[in-house]
């Protein structure tokens, strides 16, 4: 969660595992949209001597659909290469790394960036260096400066960064996957009430972990389709975003003389649109299939959105807490509210002043209405909290997507499509109990927004 190790096969391939996706109108540059895709989840900062990196044999892509068919109209493709400067050393670095061309840095990674649009490929940059991993105060003493050096403004209007960042996703993994325990309500759990006498303190399981991020800030004119106007009510203002990772179909292992080789066309092994979709909605037996398909095929999974397993589990796990939700799930009435949020976008007329509908094609994408400006005082509950610039209108780094998703599944959004339904009182309060304040590394106010990665020397913090 949000999409860390969410499927059996991709859990074995972390370098290609897309863990989080963000898409939002840039608060410090509102004529642009920022897209961030995280990979290589759950990195232990002290994981040397072979520190984490992107895969040279993986094609990473961020896709934008601007006409609602669930297929990419614009794609930003990142491809990486790694170089070793001292083949006779086992060390990642032999002294302080004070610049991206430091001779002390032994394993450097570079990338090319290609924009694909209108059936044509345009290479925007070649051999841009990534920053190193944040090793520690002796090896990377001025890490923020290295990140500054590795942030590039391109002549075509994009800003781009690729490298290690702090994982900004906050979730109580240990509790949630222990039979759906929510620590703030653990004493109400069907099994927990035998053990717990009071509510518990939530634990951010991903705190002090790092990820590798690809981030691109793009002028709005480069992602939206051409139109006469881009008002908040206009379909042309809405884009759908997802990310993917692909590998070549054939890999031949070397025999001690020849090196490993990969060949054949690229095939998709991971993707991510809405947070938690494959994690929570898609059944275990179909998760690997979902990772291999484009969003345009997601009608295959609509039944699991219409009747999500978690909506039936909540009343069972928390007896007498969700009686109205229990009756709703037993009636087997399709959840049109969740279909709108996850597969088609929210149509006009359901929420005052808001829509991010893309049409009838059912596709899991982060849908962003680019005509809705960022707010100076964001609400972590996004649209549920009255903040139309937040999830599920795109996703900002501080949005509490776990609580938002839980509350939607618990029935808070059902009245949007069924005025006769009354959500349970607990539905608007259900939460794992975490927020952005539980992320040790603070988010940044500007690109690339995710915080400075934790260094290995200080993780865990040295005792005083």
From TrEMBL:
It comes from the Bacteria. It holds the Pfam family DUF4331. InterPro entries: DUF4331. This is DUF4331 domain-containing protein. The lineage of its organism: Bacteria, Bacillati, Actinomycetota, Actinomycetes, Micromonosporales.
């Amino acid at each position: 969660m949000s999409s860390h190790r969410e499927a059996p096969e991709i859990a074995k391939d972390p370098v290609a595992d897309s863990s989080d996706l963000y898409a939002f109108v840039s608060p410090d540059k509102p004529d642009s949209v920022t897209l961030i895709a995280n990979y290589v989840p759950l990195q232990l900062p002290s994981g040397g001597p072979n520190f984490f990196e992107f895969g040279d044999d993986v094609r990473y892509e961020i896709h934008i659909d601007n006409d609602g068919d669930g297929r990419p109209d614009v794609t930003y493709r990142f491809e990486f290469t790694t170089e070793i400067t001292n083949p006779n050393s086992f060390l990642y670095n032999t002294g302080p790394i004070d610049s991206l061309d430091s001779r002390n840095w032994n394993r450097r990674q570079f990338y090319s960036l290609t924009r694909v649009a209108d059936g044509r490929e345009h290479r925007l940059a070649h051999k841009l260096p990534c920053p190193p991993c944040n090793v520690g105060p002796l090896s990377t003493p001025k890490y923020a400066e290295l990140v500054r050096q590795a942030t590039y403004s391109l002549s075509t209007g994009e800003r781009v960064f690729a490298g290690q960042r702090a994982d900004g996703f906050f979730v109580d993994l240990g509790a949630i996957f222990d039979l759906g325990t929510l620590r703030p309500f653990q004493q109400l759990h069907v099994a927990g009430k035998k053990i717990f006498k009071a509510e518990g303190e939530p634990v951010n399981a991903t705190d002090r972990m790092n990820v590798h991020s690809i981030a691109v800030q793009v002028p709005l004119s480069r992602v939206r389709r051409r139109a006469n106007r881009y008002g908040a009510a206009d379909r042309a203002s809405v884009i759908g975003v997802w990310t993917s990772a692909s590998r070549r179909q054939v890999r031949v292992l070397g025999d001690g003389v020849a090196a490993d080789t990969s060949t054949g066309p690229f095939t998709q092994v991971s993707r991510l649109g809405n947070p938690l979709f494959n994690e929570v909605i898609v059944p275990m037996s179909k998760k690997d299939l979902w990772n291999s398909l484009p969003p345009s095929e997601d009608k295959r999974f609509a039944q699991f959105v219409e009747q999500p397993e978690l909506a039936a589990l909540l009343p069972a796990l928390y007896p007498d807490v969700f009686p109205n939700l229990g009756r709703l799930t037993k009636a087997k009435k399709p959840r049109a509210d969740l279909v709108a949020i996850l597969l088609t976008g929210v149509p006009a007329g359901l929420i005052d002043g808001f829509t991010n509908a893309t049409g009838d094609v059912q596709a899991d994408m982060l849908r962003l209405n680019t005509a809705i400006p960022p707010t100076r005082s964001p609400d972590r509950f996004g649209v549920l909290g009255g903040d139309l610039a937040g999830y599920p209108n795109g996703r900002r780094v501080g949005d509490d997507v776990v609580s938002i998703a839980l509350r939607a599944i618990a029935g808070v959004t059902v009245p949007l499509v069924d005025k006769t339904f009354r959500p349970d009182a607990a539905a608007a309060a259900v939460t794992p109990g975490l927020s952005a304040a539980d992320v040790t590394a603070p988010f940044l106010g500007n690109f690339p927004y995710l915080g400075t990665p934790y260094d290995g020397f200080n993780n865990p913090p040295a005792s005083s």
